[in-house]
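Subject: for your reference before the review

Hello V.,

The reviewers asked for a structural picture of the protein, and I figured it would be easier to keep everything in one thread rather than splitting it across files. Below is the amino acid sequence we used in the manuscript, unchanged from the supplementary table.
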Amino acid sequence: MAVKKAIVKKPAAKKGSDKDLKTLEKKIGKVPKFFKELTTKEPEMFNLVMRFEQHIWDDGKISSKTKKLIAIAIAAALRDQHAVRAQLGGAKNIGVTKGEIEEALRVTFLLSGMPAYVYGRAQLDEVMP
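And here is what came back from the structure prediction:
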């Protein structure tokens, strides 16, 4: 006797997921391919992450520009090329200047050392010549 597997249908991503992705890309820069694929492969996860992203990036006690500078500094300290470039792209979209980023990277130098600063600065010069 053959056993039939129950087909579990995943809930669709909320309507407007393309718009959500475009908004997210404006805020953070390039959205990774795997995250875009969540809209169809794991729509429930996509919806949860989007709610979390919105909560994180919305202006609150500190502005989204300040949060972006923190994100760039952390990504540079971790020497994560994808994250640095994505955050720099998002920074341009929300009006963060090259001078503001340079200053944030100086803090990275102070706390994470010369290699982190040089790494972040090299990425900055490529993304924002």
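For the response letter, the relevant points are probably these. Residues 68 and 91 are 6 Å apart (CA to CA). Residues 13-58 form one domain.

Happy to draft the paragraph if you're swamped.

O.
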